Amino acid sequence: MKKQSGIHYLREHREAASTRPVPPEVARIRDTVVAGLGDLLQGAFDAVDDSLFELANNSRSNNEQNRYFEAMREIRIKRKGVERHFQNAVARFFATPPVTGQVRNEEASRPTNADSLSLVGDDDLEEQVALNAMVSKAKAHFQGPLLQLQARFTEVYPDASETAPVNPMAPEHLCSAFVEAIQTLEIQIRERLIVLKQFDRYVVSNLGMLLDEANRILIQAGIIPNFRYHGKTGQQKAATTKAGEPSGAAPEQQSSYQPSAEDSVLFEQIRQMLAQQRANSGMPTRRADPSVRVIGGQELMNLLGALPAQQMWPESGDLSSGEPVSVDLRQVIQGLITRNAAQGEKTAALSEVDEDLINLVSMLFEFILDDYNLSSPVQVLISRLQIPILKVVIKDKSFFSKATHPARKLLNSLARAGIGWSSSDEKSRDKLYDQIHTVVQRILNEFDGDISLFETLNQEFEQFLERENRKASLVEQRTRESERGRIKSQKAQEAVDRLLKEKVARYDLPESVHDILVHGWSRVMFLAYLRDDAEHRWQETAKVVDDLIWCLHPHEEDEERDQWVRVVPGLLKTLRAGLEEVSYNANRLDQMMGQLKHELADAFRTNSSIKARKEPEPVQEDTVSLHSKAEYQQELDDAAIAEFVTQLDKLEIGHWVEFSLVNGTSFRCKLSAIIDEADCFVFVNRMGLKVIEKTRVELAHEMRRGRLTLLEQGALIDRALNAMVGSLRSKTA
Predict the structure, then answer these.
(1) pLDDT at 75
(2) Is there a single domain that holds both residue 16 and residue 147?
(3) What does each C-alpha distance from 510 to 515, 544, 574, 614 come to in angstroms?
(4) Domain count, the chain
(5) What distance in Å separates the CA atoms of residue 535 and residue 542, rounded to the nearest whole number?
(6) Measured by CB atoms within 10 angstroms of the end CB, which terminus of the chain is less buried, N or C?
């Protein structure tokens, strides 16, 4: 593949600086997009580095491993240049945007035959296939925002028209710019495809937030503010607000969610159980009464709409203060009916359907407020949403049946995000808590029956979570790698110390020999242990210790003395090479090797022997008794925690837990890694930083003492509905 020289980057800077001026709103979008793509690209390159390291670590040969390490080195050296090239290219798109689809149409119009395909190399073809797949996926996934942007940008640029539309942020332009930028990387096709895969995963898949931001800026500038896009037919048009329509109900704000008749099936089943429960309890069945006026539907919505938002606020005016509040919805609505009843009018009452809805929402929030998996501060905030959710279910009963219902999705998102929030966290400085608080506040202030508000808020909240999780996942990955390395080093040191202690403790070795083994060769053994999976040198380094000690023993038989003569030269050579590999002090090494040669020669010449240490004194009976008691106690402990160890075996990476401390405080963290070598569990907080590490046995003891709680991971509303249905079934059985 043709590579570009470093001079090309200098020319790019001059070109980027000399482009013609663009409208202020486009300049604002350009700066936001270039900066945002730069941040996303950094995450992509970090992931490329991690992927290549993993492949190198799992390589089957040295050649393959070297190939991946060389690719890592090449990418690290040229990474900044690639990022700069890509960002400059994107900036130029905003100055002189290419006609959207022009390049791809030209390529499609070229004749394709066996001769033309034979001119394309296999590597180029693979890269082109990856590029086309990436572009096609992005255009399908972001079809709506892209069409809106194309219409608005075409309106902004004077040279553009409906027959020649422009969109500087079209996926084909961004992806082609990146493919051009990575041509400078001298890597093979497999590594190049890894780079493209991570670009797709970290950059292209996250274009949505940049597209939405660009649309928002153009809408604020008054460029086709009321754009209507019909996703099913692929048709779009600019729509102006008609007379008589509410000015605030912009078409793009209308919810794409449309409930179907089948969505209310679960609600009807629950109603049947409620009816059976009333019959079992002897409650009279409601009959039509001409003196009673039944209210419901829109009239009930209007009554609830008259409630001020502050109804769900504490006296202090702060949503996050106080305790979770369970509202008596039935009493609130009855008060509204009584207060709004006209003089001399028939007695007003709720329909049986609406009464069932009120009961269900009350039961739902009873579960939510009793759910230990929600942290208390987040529970307080969600408790403020009881009346808005009642309005939602009155308008759309599919809330109970449809997992994709906007309000249900938002509640699940808030609960999922809040599971890792600890009471000890600082509310005023925590972005997550502030975001949840803002969402609840907006629902209380803005919800007027239009369910699309929940859809909008959920999209914004998910985008926020995606940004936060991306940062946290990078930190967590570094934390995990660091802990694996630390624990592996710790295990290596323990193994070296244990082996040397076992072998050296048997004999009174000469000081020079003891020194070279304990303070020199131990480093070689440590390194060999760490590399053992790849190089298998651990057993060789241990054999050197055995050979050295054997050479210091007396050897009277001719066969043994001949073997000694054969072993010693190689032994000395191996010792020196190993110590040089670990950068042992050169002057000290020469001195130690000289002393060692002298000790070996003296042992061979005089046939003297290293002295074996005295056998340890026999253990007293009371010591044996203590050991027996300790072993018996250990057996009892093992039996006591066996049940909890079984529970821990089901604990998976990413699972949240809560630790309770002796002083009464608690904190929540997520299982990030299980390091098998040490049977060690590493936990991190929401930011990806290490919080605590414990062995399986230590965790089991914490569970037995009630200081460790495994938190449920399922969707909040799903768990609440399951519990509610289970409770109703048990009562009607």
Answers:
(1) 92
(2) yes
(3) 9, 17, 20, 16
(4) 4
(5) 14
(6) C
